[in-house]
Design brief:
- This protein has 10 helices and 2 strands.
- With 198 residues, it is mainly α.
- A two-stranded antiparallel sheet has the order 1-2.
Amino acid sequence: MNDELDPAADLAEHLYQLLQDAPAGIGEYQLIQQLKDRHCTHIPHLPLTDNLVLFRTHFLVFNALYRLRERLCSEQLGFVQISPLHIQLLPYQAGSAELSEHDPLRDYYLDLSQLSDTDEQAVEKLLASFWTRMQGGEEKRAALELFELSESQQPLNLGLIKYRYRQLVSQHHPDRGGSTARLQSINKAMEILERYYD
């Protein structure tokens, strides 16, 4: 297959070079930044603050990583260990290919329809369910601390939380000398708390 006609294969080659340069492993975010520094044309060169851009960038990188893993295993050149926090190129070991064959994440990332069929609304749902599953109590506690309600003696309900939200928005609004970043944090905390108290 001609790599010039296959963007995913070309991206996989970029990733292979970066992983060879990071023998101890590397996080996904750092990997994406290095791809951008190399002016890799196969990922979006847009800020990762937009959830849909973040999802598409993540998906393209993971699709290429799984393709790279399969190629290296079939050629017995190595094995790519894949997780968002730690991606590492390991020496090939017999049996590595079998380990990757029953991986539901591999099936997800190698299915390009997941990329084309996922719109902004779907990404929002994915993120909401991810944070609810992954952080649960931690996420809720952080939001309550931001609202200074974590040690409230009053029983918490959505009415009290909304009242506190309005106070904080008024206090931290940029038109009144507040910080935009702080206001965004307050809005995010309100979204989180609405899921728990609605």
